[in-house]
């Protein structure tokens, strides 16, 4: 970045929300670098981690740690600094601040107090993953991290059974296999999944498989479970949207023993569903 000369002019006293790379250090905008060069102070989640990015771009600025557990109290200090005329950039360890990263309380407080907040856009793993996954993107639901505990995870997934939009989750390598197992239990083994692993990095990979096959694939090789993950789940199709999963499970079990017409009729009675919808679903899926 030596071509981008250090700019010394000062910025208006505002809070600048600056996106930084999610892996590839070149994924940062010219504007982001200019802003980081010009602000009086850079608030960061982990000042040592962000220090590496800043030194790569030869940016030397005072830094101010701001993480989830001290955000409310430290945020007040930042707001006072802005009110006294300083310009402040907020960055996180990777990607866009506030997207599963600190900053919400600070931005909310700024908005309430009439302090200007300026977004400086750039990478975020959710959008990066969606842009190359091949799943519908006209509407999607960003779900962040699933709860870690078994019951919480299952309950959360149960609320999403009929969600028609593509769903996007962040997941850790330690929990990805367990999460796929729960998805199989709750959404069924046929639900299409796309995993985006190590986006913008050397081992960037996209895996696109039904949930049941995804589990086998991840279990085949520990390398498949290394690194950072975005997990995308295809939305429920029209039929799945209107037919509860429990009825589809019954239909699938009965179809193993009976002709589809009979299986659909019995399932319709048991679950108070439309016979024709079940029959149609059976023709397409069983
Ligand atoms: N603020 C970030 C953003 O805008 O995407 C997200 C921060 S969140 C604490 C970190 C999670 O984002 C990781 O656990 C992973 O799920 C996802 N993530 C971040 N970078 C990624 C990458 N290069 N490849 C895949 N997933 C990534």
Architecture overview:
This protein is α/β, with parallel strands linked by helices and 286 residues long. It folds into 3 domains: 3-123, Cobalt-precorrin-4 Transmethylase, domain 1; 126-237, Methyltransferase, Cobalt-precorrin-4 Transmethylase, Domain 2 (2-Layer Sandwich); 243-285. Helices cover 42% and strands 17% of the residues. The protein contains 12 helices and 10 strands. It has a 5-stranded parallel β-sheet, with helices on both faces. Strand 8 and strand 9 (205-210) form a beta hairpin. Helix 6 packs across helix 7 (176-187) and helix 7 (176-187) runs antiparallel to helix 8 (211-220). The protein is elongated. It binds S-adenosylmethionine (SAM). The site of S-adenosylmethionine has 23 residues, from helix 5, strand 7 and strand 10.
Number of strands: 10
Beta fraction of the residues? 15-25%
CATH class of the largest domain: Alpha Beta
Query: What is the subunit organization of this protein?
Result: single chain
Number of helices: 12
Straight-line distance between termini? 57 Å
Counted up, domains total 3
Distinct ligands: S-adenosylmethionine
Low-confidence parts: 1-8
Gyration radius over CA = 24 Å
CATH homologous superfamily heading of the largest domain = Tetrapyrrole methylase, N-terminal domain
Q: Would you tell me the overall average pLDDT?
A: 93
């Amino acid at each position: 970045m030596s071509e981008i000369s250090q700019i010394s002019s000062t910025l208006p006293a505002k809070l600048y929300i600056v996106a930084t790379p999610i892996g590839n250090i070149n994924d940062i905008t010219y504007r982001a670098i200019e802003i980081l060069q010009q602000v009086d102070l850079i608030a960061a989640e982990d000042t040592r981690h962000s220090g590496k990015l800043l030194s790569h771009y030869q940016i030397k600025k005072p830094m101010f740690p701001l993480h989830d557990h001290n955000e409310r109290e430290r945020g007040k200090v930042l707001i006072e600094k802005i009110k006294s005329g300083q310009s402040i950039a907020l960055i996180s360890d990777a990607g866009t601040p506030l997207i599963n990263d600190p900053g919400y309380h600070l931005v909310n407080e700024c908005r309430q107090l009439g302090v200007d907040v300026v977004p400086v856009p750039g990478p975020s793993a959710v959008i990066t993953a969606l842009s190359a996954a091949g799943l519908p993107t006209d509407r999607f639901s960003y779900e962040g991290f699933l709860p870690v505990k078994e019951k919480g995870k299952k309950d959360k997934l149960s609320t999403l059974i009929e969600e028609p939009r593509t769903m996007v989750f962040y997941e850790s390598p330690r929990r990805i296999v367990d999460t796929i197992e729960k998805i199989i239990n709750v959404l069924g083994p046929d639900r299409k999944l796309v995993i985006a692993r190590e986006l913008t990095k050397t081992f960037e990979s996209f895996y696109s498989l039904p949930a049941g096959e995804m589990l086998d694939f991840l279990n085949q090789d520990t390398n498949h479970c290394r690194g950072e993950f975005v997990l995308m789940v295809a939305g429920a199709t029209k039929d799945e949207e209107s037919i509860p999963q429990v009825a589809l499970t019954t239909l699938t079990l009965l179809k193993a023993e009976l002709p589809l017409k009979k299986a659909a009729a019995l399932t319709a009675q048991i679950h108070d569903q439309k016979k024709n919808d079940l029959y149609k679903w059976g023709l397409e899926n069983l």
